[in-house]
Amino acid sequence: MFGRLTWDAIPFNQPIPLITSLVVIAVLGAVAIWITVNKWWPYLWNEYITSTDHKRIGIMYIVLALVMLVRGFADAIMMRAQQSLAIGQSQGYLPPEHYNQIFSAHGTIMIFFVAMPFVIGFMNFVVPLQLGVRDVAFPTMNNVSFWLTASGVLLVNMSLFLGEFARTGWLAFPPLSEKAFSPGVGVDYYLVALQISGVGTLLTGVNFVTTILKTRAPGMSYMRMPVFCWTALASNLLIIAAFPVLTVTLALLMLDRYLGFHFFTNDGGGNSMLYMNLIWVWGHPEVYILVLPAFGIYSEVVSTFSGKPLFGYRSMVFATLAICILAFTVWLHHFFTMGAGADVNAFFGIASMLIGIPTGVKIYNWLFTMYGGRVRFNVPMYYAIGFMLTFVIGGLTGVLLAIPPVDFIVHNSLFLVAHFHQVIIGGVVFAVMAGYTYWFPKAFGFTLDERLGKAVFWCWFIGFHLAFMPLYVLGFWGATRRMQHIPDPTWAPLLNIALVGAAIIGLGIALTVVQLIYSINTRDQRRDVTGDPWDGRTLEWLTLSPPPHYNFAVLPDVHGEEAYWTRKQTAIKLDKLIDEPNYQPIEMPLNTPVGVICAFFASVCGFAIIWYIWWLAILGLIGAFAIFVWYAWRDEHEHIIPLEEVRENARERRRIRMEHLHELSQST
Amino acid sequence: MSTHAEAAIVGLTHGGSEDTGLGQRGPASKSIVVPYGFWLFVLSDMVLFSALFATYASLVHATDGGPITNQVFHRDLVAVETIALLVSSFVCGLAMITAKRANMFWTQVWLLVTALLGLVFLYIEISEFAGMIAIGAAPQRSAFLSAFFTLVGCHGLHVTCGLLWIGTMMAQIWAKGFQPHIVRRLLCLSVFWHALDIIWVAIFTIVYLIGTLP
Amino acid sequence: MECKTNGTAICPRSCCVGLILQAGGGFVNSLECHGRWVRNRILLWPTLTLLLSACNHGILDPVGPVGAQEKQLLINSTAIMLAIIIPTMIATVGVAFWFRRGNAKAEYRPDWEYSGAIEMVVWSIPALTIMLLGGIAWIGSHDLEPSKPLPSKNPPLKVDVVSLDWKWLFIYPDQGVATVNQLVVPAGTPVSFRLTSATVWNSFFVPQMGTMIYTMPRMTTRLNLEADKPGVYNGLSSHFSGDGFPGMQFQVQALPADQFAMWAQSAHGAALRLDGAGYAELSKPSSYVRPMTYGTVVPGLFDAIVANRAPPNPAPPPAHNPPAPAGV
Questions:
Q1: Is the Cβ of A632 closer than 8 Å to some Cβ of chain B?
Q2: Inter-chain contact A337–C112, Cβ cutoff 8 Å?
Q3: Are A307 and A300 in contact (CB under 8 A)?
Q4: N or C of chain C: less Cβ packing under 10 Å?
Q5: Alpha-carbon gap, residue C48 to B188, rounded angstroms
């Protein structure tokens, strides 16, 4: 009746997951009670959960990412602690069965449920505003995408208190991940969670490519788009091209595990090398899916806070598209040591280095953007400069790893671990922290506290270096990755430094929470009255903060690059705004519960598949299909924002802008 | 230059946008955006099938001493399946024409025929699978068979989803008539159905034709 | 200089944001006030890294030609790239600092956003660097291809390697003996490996000897290494293989040639037999296994393992053996 789900699934005899689960359930319960007592459920349901507004969906993605950052970091600090303790005679406090789940969960959560939601969240919030349009091409599908990702989060976290997680690493290589060597539910949790959230991500890809290519403000040709939109385009093209491969690869492994097929098994003619190839054909574009929008954020931040247009716009666009295409030509560098032969290895090594060229060009273009500028050292600029220093070292170690004979001695070592954390933290994490600070006022109408923001930056910058520089050295000393026990006591000092670094990062994360709470409590001191707190250059700063649901009363006419900046400068010079346009009532898509309900059924179905509860899986599928048909049957798709409301909001915005304009005109 | 002219050049008046070389007149209409997005989805589906084709190509000789292609594929059955699917694509096109003309009766008829032909295809395919399993050529026998069943079966699964979709559209057209959003969905359905046809052509060439070469 | 944070003439630590920064100690200062100082600290790291690396027995302490060439490649490539990267990092901090808003001496060029000459340079620097490194990669990949035999006046020693759950089996087909978790080789003679796995993927790695290679079930990989000087070197698996993975350490003993011959001779006398039953026993999951020697090995065992004709390996249970005491 309940498949293989029994009371044994609850980890009564494992204190750490048990206590963690109880704490998480208690916290969730407390939050639910707090919301109920304050009667916030209707607000949350109408304004966020069922929202088709790209801004709200973007915020939900980022909230999800921040919460999962805490979980992923908890895994990280547990790993560091174990490696500091389990040296020589001691086995530490985590037996291998447990440690192996932790590093697998750490990687899975950080890539799929922290980095991806962060980046997708920013693309959601910013791209339609920068393109000067009201929403993405498919707002309801956008909502569904978010909730499917949340479903993946739910399933991965459920493995804490029901069953176990995969013990195979974040990519679940066979044959270790096959039924014969991983008979438990762990790998199944992994596969099902990623399949569900993968569908969500693919839909996001379709949504954003359509939005960027087919829906832009009048006059915004391709070469007038902000660079962030170009990088979002490249990233989403990669999503469309790469995620189906992930879907297939995970499905093949599921078929092996569930139906006894022989794709990657040791017998029956299975070929585990095929999995390596397939998963990395997805895996390498995946990291570019993450880093390209990060580069876009830096382009926006460096240009805004230098008071200058981005240097070499066309070069940046070309470099972005070059990286997009090259991303698909390098996957074999993840397994040079599989023995493909010198010609193959050398080809992929050189291809991997080629990607370094457009990336290097970007760094120089950011440098020359600052050159001749007036650089303001707000928090986002700290992250941008920190990134430029950190990422180039990551690039250096990356090119080193791209040389096959060098890879032969550092593959899978802590050197590799330090490299990819360097590029991901230096590249993606710093970018999302910069973006978080940069766009926070647009989303919520007040800026975050600067002092605390700088403290958070320093915690990340110093903590990162302390945590990962020792790992390069350890890699040279022969330390490999994923070790539950450290054989050589002379490694202890460096591992302890790394632990301190991780603790400092933890402090940074804690301070982020403190900064948020403090900023909310003192928000009146830092209100963003004009909607343009940073003297921005792109169209999102044209609106008030937060923008109305429909973004713009009238879609802006775009003349030339840097649509907003030129408009602003001319307005300042002439001391007048553009003529008041003809306002019209605006049609906006309705809210819909289809996303959250669909995700509910997907979670039910997924859970049932994991635990072999077949009748429940079928019910879940039927439920998902039924809700879809119910949604398709509706007659009302849009609601109308009346003319008076549009006009009132627009006039209020114009009034505030005129005041601000007068101040600026007097001062120049 | 007058202030107004200067202002017009930099966009401070509402004269509409001048031609910017790529005809950017603002966001495209739904009748363009929806099929465009659906095409992108179909492209992603093609990537999915490419991965399955690549898997099949890698594993086609991994028979583990079990049945090989020549022993289990029957070209005549495949020919009937192909004809059924090709004709169903043609009929689907007819359904689109009558839908554009808002002809309820014929649209339903052509959609029904499309579905029936799809069912014929599925019936033959399922019989083929059952037959192979009966003689011991089950997907669990070898990597080659796993790859075959998955590639062809995935296509069959897509056809099944297409049939469900056809049924839903028939019901929806019946209940609501030929409203623009419903006709758009019909267009997406026909794109999907034709795409499945294209994939089938690739399957029967790569799997069945090449596989049964002497 | 003037601190732009609060306009005071000197920039005392208290002006810089966050008390936490003071607690952090020497590394922490506001960029506005101490840009150059921060830059120097950042340069400290690579230097320290290189210094620290020299004093342990890892890849920077090679004992054979393969490892030595790979170390040289590593150092050369790093140096080439540092020559580009360090000036870039200095320029980054320098430009940001010079063009800070408070600096009246810096020229503000708000419309300067393109320069063909700079673009040419900016594309050329990475391109030329990559062309150089690409050439190095091509030549290096061919010179150091694992399956390429090493030039030597001595004929190579053949060793067949099997990774099991969770220990290493070394078969010496010409000597007719086998060892577990201990690889004995003659110094100054190339070793020609054939490798496979009995269960899941692993990776055979002796950092001081150089190149690692995957071991994969039903497949054979090939590797050629050499230890020039006698000594004891650490080996491990560098591809995660399950719960007993941390216990897959082994040792390489490189003996002078005559001592190797003596060892091979005495190994024959070992009581353990690696026949079907012996292999089945060895296949049982275990970790942190003490080095063992087999006096007899049934011929063709390696090929049988690759072809999946050797006694089957049952699925591993979760537990593993406790670690061996230090000094053994």
A1: yes
A2: no
A3: no
A4: C
A5: 61
Contact A321, A374 (CB under 8 A): no
Q: Identify the CATH number of the domain in which residue C207 sits.
A: 2.60.40.420
Tokens 């000036």: give the residue: C87
Q: B213: buried, middle or exposed (CB in 10 Å: 19+, 13-18, 0-12)?
A: exposed
pLDDT at C328 over 50: no
Distance CA A547, CA C263 (A): 80
Provide the domain count of chain C.
1
- Whether A59 and A435 have beta carbons less than 8 Å apart is answered as no
Residues A414 and A472 sit within 8 Å (Cβ to Cβ) = yes
Catalytic machinery residues of A? 61, 71, 75, 79, 103, 124, 135, 142, 145, 149, 201, 204, 211, 284, 286, 288, 299, 315, 359, 362, 419-421
Strands C296-297 and C273-274: parallel
Question: Does residue B179 sit in helix, strand or coil?
Answer: coil
Instruction: Choose among A501, A387, A384, A519: nearest CA to A450.
Output: A519
Of A305, A235, A242, A298, the residue nearest A427 (C-alpha): A298
- How many CB pairs (< 8 A) connect A and B? 182
A588-634, pLDDT tens digit by residue?
999 999 999 999 999 999 999 999 999 999 999 999 999 999 999 99
**Average pLDDT of the segment spanning A364-389:** 97
Segment C267-325, tens digit of pLDDT: 999 999 999 999 999 999 999 999 999 999 999 999 999 998 887 654 444 444 444 44
Closest-CA distance, A616 to chain C, in angstroms, reads 30
A186-214 helix and A139-158 helix, angle to the nearest 10 degrees: 160
Specify if C238 maps to a domain.
yes
Do C199 and A181 count as a contact with CB atoms less than 8 A apart?
yes
Q: Is the ipTM of this complex over 0.90?
A: yes
- The CATH architecture of the domain made up of B38-211 is Up-down Bundle (1.20)
Would you say residue C92 lies in a domain?
no
Q: How many Cβ pairs within 8 Å bridge chains A and C?
A: 330
| Backbone phi and psi for residue A182, each to the nearest 5 degrees, phi listed first | -135, 75
Q: Which amino acid, one-letter code, is at A82?
A: Q
- β pairing state of C231-237 and C250-255: antiparallel
Confirm or reject contact between A341 and chain B (CB < 8 A).
no
Residue C252: DSSP 8-state: E
Stated pTM of the model: 0.93
**Tokens read off for A117:** 């939601």
Asked if A578 reaches chain B (Cβ–Cβ under 8 Å), the answer is yes
Asked if residue A175 has a cis previous peptide bond (ω within 30° of 0), the answer is yes
Which of A395-404, C49-58, C235-244 is predicted with the least confidence, judged by mean pLDDT?
C49-58
Nearest-CA distance C196 → chain A (Å):
12
Using the beta-carbon criterion (under 8 Å), do B59 and A269 form an inter-chain contact? yes
**Are C109 and A372 within 8 A, CB to CB?**
yes
User: Is residue C176 one of the residues assigned to a domain?
Assistant: yes
b vs e for C149-160, b when ≥16 Cβ sit within 10 Å of the residue's Cβ?
ebeeeeebbebb
Tell me if the bond preceding C317 is cis, omega within 30° of 0.
no
Residues within 8 A of A (CB atoms), C 6-35 only: 17-18, 20-21, 24, 27-28, 30-32
Give the angle A491-A492-A493 at the CA atoms, nearest 5°: 100
C275, part of any domain:
yes
Ramachandran angles phi, psi of B12, nearest 5°: -90, 5
Cβ–Cβ gap A482/C240 under 8 Å: yes
- Residues 194-213 of chain A with CB under 8 A from chain B are 202, 205-207, 209-210, 213
Residue C164, φ and ψ in degrees, nearest 5: -115, 180
CA A66, chain centre distance (Å)? 10
Cross-chain Cβ contact A389/C60 below 8 Å? no
* Residue A440: other Cβ atoms inside 10 A: 20
Print the domain residue range for C182: 157-306
